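Dear colleagues,

As part of the handover before I leave the project, I'm documenting each prediction I ran so the next person doesn't have to rerun anything. This entry is a single chain, and its sequence is reproduced below.
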Amino acid sequence: MKRFSIIFWGLVSVFVLFSSCKQKIGWTTVSVADSVRHYYPIIAGDILNLSYEIENTGEEPLIIREIQPSCGCIVPKLTSRMIMPGKSRRLLFKYESAKNIGFVEHVIRIHCNVKPTGIIKLVFDTKKDIMWILRRMTAGNRILIHGVKRNEI
C-alpha cells in the first residue's frame, strides 16, 4: 500500500508540474509603418539594407515562428522572435540585387500569432533602369559602352 501511494503521488506531482507550465498564447494585432515600398532605380549588384518597424498593438506577445522571403536574395537579420504588447522592434533584411533584372516585386511573409490570417506581409519592389545606369556611367562628355570609352556625338 505504501508503494502504491508513492507511485500515485509521484504521478500526480509530475502531472501538476508539466500541466502548470504550459501557457496558451492568443492572437494579437500589429502595426507596420510603410509595409509597401518602392526602390527606383537601382544598379545590379547594389545591396539594400531594409528596416521595417513592427509594433505589437495587441494584448498578447507577438511570437514570430518563421520568416519566408520570396527570393533567396533577401536575408533576414533576426535578433529576437518575440515582441511584447505595446512595444515595437525593427526587423532588418539585406537584399542583394545582383540576381534580378528589370522590375521585380518581393514579398516577405512573417508567420506569427497575428489576426486574422497569422501572416504579416512586407512588400517591396525594385527596378533597374538601363538609361539611368548609362547616365550614371557617363563621365563628362565621355561614356562607357561595352567597356570602351567613346566620345559622345
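The chain has a mean pLDDT of 81. Residues 2-20 form the longest helix (19 residues).

All the best with the project,
I.
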